[in-house]
Task: inverse folding
């Protein structure tokens, strides 16, 4: 319900993560669920939009989607619960290369 689909790309970073990795997993939101039920029959909508750039922890990924079909051919897509995203990042201009 609160899952988001994130197209991942790995960015080298000067930030030292606790497991001594020098990479962080960033991605672009390419889809999201209808939101979490609020107990009264309605849903709390997602706080994210398509195209938002987010930072995730690899251990919070529920599963990866391997899709050989357009438009994500060869891309690494991760399903993550919205509550497990680390943060939303300011977008920087970039171009995805397939």
Result:
């Amino acid at each position: 319900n609160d899952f988001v689909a994130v197209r991942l790309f790995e960015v080298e970073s000067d930030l030292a993560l606790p497991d001594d990795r020098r990479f962080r997993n960033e991605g672009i939101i390419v889809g999201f669920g209808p939101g979490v039920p609020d107990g009264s029959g309605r849903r709390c909508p997602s706080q994210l939009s398509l195209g938002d750039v987010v930072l995730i922890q690899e251990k919070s990924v529920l599963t990866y989607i391997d899709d050989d079909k357009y438009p994500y051919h060869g891309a690494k897509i991760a399903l993550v619960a919205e509550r497990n995203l680390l943060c939303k990042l300011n977008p920087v201009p970039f171009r995805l290369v397939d």
Remarks:
- The CA atoms of residues 71 and 98 lie 10 Å apart.
- The two ends are 30 Å apart (CA to CA).
- DSSP finds no helices and eight strands in the chain.
